[in-house]
Design goal:
The chain crosses the membrane at residues 21-42. There is one protein chain. By secondary structure, this protein is mainly α. Helix 1 packs antiparallel against helix 2 and helix 2 packs antiparallel against helix 3. A hairpin with an 8-residue loop joins strand 1 and strand 2 (187-191). The protein has one domain. The two termini are 43 Å apart. The protein has a two-stranded antiparallel ribbon with strand order 1-2. It has helices at 2-14, 18-90, 118-125, 134-173, 194-199, 201-243, and strands at residues 174-178, 187-191.
Length: 244
Protein backbone atom coordinates (compact mmCIF):
# COMPACT_ATOMS: atom_id res chain seq x y z
CA UNK A 1 0.00 0.00 0.00
CA UNK A 2 2.83 2.39 0.87
CA UNK A 3 4.64 1.60 -2.41
CA UNK A 4 1.46 2.39 -4.37
CA UNK A 5 1.15 5.80 -2.66
CA UNK A 6 4.83 6.48 -3.39
CA UNK A 7 4.43 5.70 -7.12
CA UNK A 8 1.37 7.96 -7.36
CA UNK A 9 3.30 10.84 -5.71
CA UNK A 10 6.27 10.37 -8.06
CA UNK A 11 4.02 10.28 -11.13
CA UNK A 12 2.24 13.49 -10.14
CA UNK A 13 5.55 15.26 -9.52
CA UNK A 14 6.97 14.10 -12.85
CA UNK A 15 3.87 15.42 -14.62
CA UNK A 16 4.26 18.74 -12.75
CA UNK A 17 0.70 18.51 -11.47
CA UNK A 18 1.33 20.44 -8.25
CA UNK A 19 -2.33 21.14 -7.44
CA UNK A 20 -3.28 17.50 -7.80
CA UNK A 21 -0.21 16.52 -5.82
CA UNK A 22 -1.16 18.83 -2.93
CA UNK A 23 -4.74 17.52 -3.00
CA UNK A 24 -3.43 13.98 -3.05
CA UNK A 25 -1.00 14.72 -0.18
CA UNK A 26 -3.79 16.17 1.94
CA UNK A 27 -5.93 13.13 1.21
CA UNK A 28 -3.07 10.80 2.12
CA UNK A 29 -2.52 12.65 5.41
CA UNK A 30 -6.26 12.42 6.07
CA UNK A 31 -6.28 8.67 5.44
CA UNK A 32 -3.23 8.13 7.65
CA UNK A 33 -4.82 10.23 10.40
CA UNK A 34 -8.05 8.24 10.16
CA UNK A 35 -6.04 5.02 10.34
CA UNK A 36 -4.20 6.21 13.46
CA UNK A 37 -7.45 7.29 15.10
CA UNK A 38 -9.06 3.93 14.35
CA UNK A 39 -6.01 2.12 15.74
CA UNK A 40 -6.07 4.26 18.89
CA UNK A 41 -9.81 3.71 19.27
CA UNK A 42 -9.39 -0.06 18.99
CA UNK A 43 -6.50 0.02 21.48
CA UNK A 44 -8.52 2.16 23.93
CA UNK A 45 -11.51 -0.16 23.61
CA UNK A 46 -9.28 -3.18 24.21
CA UNK A 47 -7.65 -1.61 27.27
CA UNK A 48 -11.04 -0.60 28.64
CA UNK A 49 -12.31 -4.15 28.15
CA UNK A 50 -9.28 -5.58 29.96
CA UNK A 51 -9.76 -3.15 32.88
CA UNK A 52 -13.44 -4.09 33.20
CA UNK A 53 -12.54 -7.79 33.24
CA UNK A 54 -9.88 -7.10 35.88
CA UNK A 55 -12.30 -5.01 37.94
CA UNK A 56 -14.87 -7.83 37.97
CA UNK A 57 -12.20 -10.40 38.85
CA UNK A 58 -10.92 -8.39 41.82
CA UNK A 59 -14.40 -7.56 43.11
CA UNK A 60 -15.33 -11.25 43.01
CA UNK A 61 -12.16 -11.99 45.00
CA UNK A 62 -13.17 -9.32 47.50
CA UNK A 63 -16.52 -11.04 47.92
CA UNK A 64 -14.75 -14.37 48.50
CA UNK A 65 -12.60 -12.79 51.22
CA UNK A 66 -15.68 -11.27 52.86
CA UNK A 67 -17.51 -14.61 52.76
CA UNK A 68 -14.60 -16.20 54.64
CA UNK A 69 -14.69 -13.30 57.10
CA UNK A 70 -18.41 -13.71 57.82
CA UNK A 71 -18.04 -17.47 58.33
CA UNK A 72 -15.23 -17.02 60.85
CA UNK A 73 -16.97 -14.11 62.60
CA UNK A 74 -20.10 -16.22 62.91
CA UNK A 75 -18.06 -18.76 64.87
CA UNK A 76 -16.68 -16.01 67.11
CA UNK A 77 -20.18 -14.65 67.73
CA UNK A 78 -21.15 -18.14 68.89
CA UNK A 79 -18.24 -18.02 71.33
CA UNK A 80 -19.47 -14.66 72.61
CA UNK A 81 -22.95 -16.13 73.18
CA UNK A 82 -21.35 -18.93 75.23
CA UNK A 83 -19.41 -16.41 77.30
CA UNK A 84 -22.67 -14.54 77.95
CA UNK A 85 -24.41 -17.77 79.01
CA UNK A 86 -21.55 -18.52 81.40
CA UNK A 87 -21.86 -15.12 83.05
CA UNK A 88 -25.65 -15.45 83.41
CA UNK A 89 -25.16 -18.82 85.15
CA UNK A 90 -22.34 -17.62 87.44
CA UNK A 91 -24.20 -14.47 88.48
CA UNK A 92 -26.98 -16.59 90.01
CA UNK A 93 -26.77 -17.84 93.62
CA UNK A 94 -25.06 -21.24 93.46
CA UNK A 95 -24.89 -24.02 96.01
CA UNK A 96 -22.26 -26.03 94.16
CA UNK A 97 -20.21 -26.02 90.96
CA UNK A 98 -22.07 -29.13 89.78
CA UNK A 99 -25.09 -26.94 89.08
CA UNK A 100 -23.15 -25.66 86.07
CA UNK A 101 -22.38 -29.04 84.53
CA UNK A 102 -24.78 -28.42 81.60
CA UNK A 103 -23.45 -24.91 81.01
CA UNK A 104 -19.74 -25.61 80.46
CA UNK A 105 -18.89 -22.23 82.04
CA UNK A 106 -16.18 -20.14 80.40
CA UNK A 107 -14.53 -17.18 82.07
CA UNK A 108 -11.13 -17.01 80.44
CA UNK A 109 -9.88 -16.66 76.91
CA UNK A 110 -11.63 -14.55 74.34
CA UNK A 111 -12.37 -14.06 70.68
CA UNK A 112 -10.01 -13.37 67.83
CA UNK A 113 -10.34 -12.59 64.15
CA UNK A 114 -7.87 -11.78 61.37
CA UNK A 115 -9.48 -10.15 58.36
CA UNK A 116 -8.82 -11.57 54.90
CA UNK A 117 -7.22 -8.72 52.95
CA UNK A 118 -5.46 -10.57 50.12
CA UNK A 119 -7.73 -9.15 47.40
CA UNK A 120 -7.65 -5.67 48.92
CA UNK A 121 -3.84 -5.65 48.99
CA UNK A 122 -3.71 -6.81 45.36
CA UNK A 123 -6.08 -4.00 44.37
CA UNK A 124 -4.04 -1.37 46.20
CA UNK A 125 -0.82 -2.56 44.57
CA UNK A 126 -2.28 -2.07 41.06
CA UNK A 127 -2.16 0.99 38.82
CA UNK A 128 -5.92 1.48 38.49
CA UNK A 129 -8.51 2.30 41.12
CA UNK A 130 -11.00 -0.49 41.73
CA UNK A 131 -13.92 -0.38 41.70
CA UNK A 132 -14.35 2.33 39.08
CA UNK A 133 -17.33 3.66 41.04
CA UNK A 134 -16.02 6.30 43.49
CA UNK A 135 -18.81 5.86 46.03
CA UNK A 136 -18.43 2.08 46.22
CA UNK A 137 -14.64 2.37 46.43
CA UNK A 138 -14.93 4.78 49.37
CA UNK A 139 -17.43 2.45 51.05
CA UNK A 140 -15.10 -0.54 50.75
CA UNK A 141 -12.07 1.42 52.01
CA UNK A 142 -14.11 2.74 54.93
CA UNK A 143 -15.22 -0.80 55.80
CA UNK A 144 -11.66 -2.13 56.02
CA UNK A 145 -10.39 0.95 57.86
CA UNK A 146 -13.17 0.91 60.47
CA UNK A 147 -12.98 -2.87 60.91
CA UNK A 148 -9.25 -2.64 61.59
CA UNK A 149 -9.92 0.08 64.16
CA UNK A 150 -12.55 -1.96 66.02
CA UNK A 151 -10.47 -5.14 66.01
CA UNK A 152 -7.25 -3.41 67.09
CA UNK A 153 -9.14 -1.69 69.89
CA UNK A 154 -10.47 -5.02 71.17
CA UNK A 155 -7.01 -6.60 71.03
CA UNK A 156 -5.49 -3.72 73.01
CA UNK A 157 -8.23 -3.78 75.65
CA UNK A 158 -8.08 -7.58 75.96
CA UNK A 159 -4.33 -7.51 76.51
CA UNK A 160 -4.70 -5.19 79.51
CA UNK A 161 -7.70 -7.05 80.89
CA UNK A 162 -6.03 -10.46 80.64
CA UNK A 163 -2.81 -9.26 82.22
CA UNK A 164 -4.31 -7.40 85.15
CA UNK A 165 -7.65 -9.20 85.72
CA UNK A 166 -8.10 -12.62 84.09
CA UNK A 167 -4.72 -14.22 84.83
CA UNK A 168 -4.66 -13.26 88.56
CA UNK A 169 -8.24 -14.53 89.05
CA UNK A 170 -7.54 -17.75 87.19
CA UNK A 171 -4.43 -18.48 89.25
CA UNK A 172 -6.14 -17.74 92.55
CA UNK A 173 -9.49 -19.49 92.10
CA UNK A 174 -9.37 -22.04 89.28
CA UNK A 175 -7.63 -25.04 87.83
CA UNK A 176 -7.77 -25.66 84.09
CA UNK A 177 -8.08 -28.89 82.11
CA UNK A 178 -8.42 -29.79 78.45
CA UNK A 179 -11.99 -29.89 77.18
CA UNK A 180 -12.46 -32.88 74.88
CA UNK A 181 -16.23 -32.45 74.56
CA UNK A 182 -16.55 -28.92 73.17
CA UNK A 183 -16.22 -27.83 69.55
CA UNK A 184 -15.84 -24.19 70.56
CA UNK A 185 -13.68 -24.19 73.71
CA UNK A 186 -10.41 -26.03 74.31
CA UNK A 187 -10.36 -25.75 78.11
CA UNK A 188 -12.52 -26.54 81.12
CA UNK A 189 -12.32 -24.68 84.42
CA UNK A 190 -12.94 -25.94 87.97
CA UNK A 191 -12.81 -23.91 91.19
CA UNK A 192 -9.98 -24.73 93.58
CA UNK A 193 -12.19 -23.71 96.51
CA UNK A 194 -15.82 -23.13 95.54
CA UNK A 195 -16.88 -21.40 98.78
CA UNK A 196 -13.91 -19.07 98.74
CA UNK A 197 -14.59 -18.17 95.12
CA UNK A 198 -18.32 -17.63 95.68
CA UNK A 199 -17.80 -15.31 98.64
CA UNK A 200 -14.91 -13.34 97.18
CA UNK A 201 -15.63 -9.69 96.40
CA UNK A 202 -12.67 -9.74 94.02
CA UNK A 203 -14.32 -12.53 92.04
CA UNK A 204 -17.67 -10.69 91.98
CA UNK A 205 -15.92 -7.59 90.66
CA UNK A 206 -14.22 -9.73 88.05
CA UNK A 207 -17.60 -11.00 86.81
CA UNK A 208 -18.80 -7.42 86.33
CA UNK A 209 -15.68 -6.49 84.41
CA UNK A 210 -15.87 -9.69 82.38
CA UNK A 211 -19.42 -8.84 81.35
CA UNK A 212 -18.17 -5.46 80.18
CA UNK A 213 -15.54 -7.21 78.02
CA UNK A 214 -18.12 -9.58 76.52
CA UNK A 215 -20.39 -6.65 75.71
CA UNK A 216 -17.47 -4.91 73.98
CA UNK A 217 -16.73 -8.02 71.92
CA UNK A 218 -20.35 -8.27 70.89
CA UNK A 219 -20.44 -4.57 69.91
CA UNK A 220 -17.22 -4.70 67.87
CA UNK A 221 -17.86 -8.01 66.12
CA UNK A 222 -21.44 -7.09 65.25
CA UNK A 223 -20.17 -3.84 63.75
CA UNK A 224 -17.64 -5.65 61.57
CA UNK A 225 -20.04 -8.49 60.72
CA UNK A 226 -22.86 -6.16 59.64
CA UNK A 227 -20.47 -3.95 57.67
CA UNK A 228 -19.07 -6.99 55.86
CA UNK A 229 -22.55 -8.17 54.85
CA UNK A 230 -23.48 -4.66 53.69
CA UNK A 231 -20.35 -4.36 51.53
CA UNK A 232 -20.87 -7.80 50.00
CA UNK A 233 -24.39 -6.77 49.02
CA UNK A 234 -23.20 -3.45 47.54
CA UNK A 235 -20.50 -5.14 45.46
CA UNK A 236 -22.90 -7.80 44.19
CA UNK A 237 -25.46 -5.13 43.19
CA UNK A 238 -22.73 -3.15 41.40
CA UNK A 239 -21.57 -6.20 39.47
CA UNK A 240 -25.16 -6.99 38.53
CA UNK A 241 -25.67 -3.45 37.19
CA UNK A 242 -22.47 -3.66 35.16
CA UNK A 243 -23.57 -7.00 33.69
CA UNK A 244 -26.91 -5.60 32.48
Amino acid sequence: MISIFRKIRQKLLQQNRITRYVTYAVGEIFLVTIGILIALSINTWNEDRKEKIYERKMLLELIEDMQLDTAFMHLQLRRIENFESSLVALEKPLLSWEELKDVDPQLFGGVYFIQNTKALETIKSGNIQIPFNDQLRKQINSHYHNSRFYLDLIIMEDKNFNEFRSIPIQKEFFKVERNEDSEIFDLKIFPIDFEKMKNSQEFKDFLLLRRSRVNRWNWAYRKVYDSTLENMKSIQEYLQQKAN
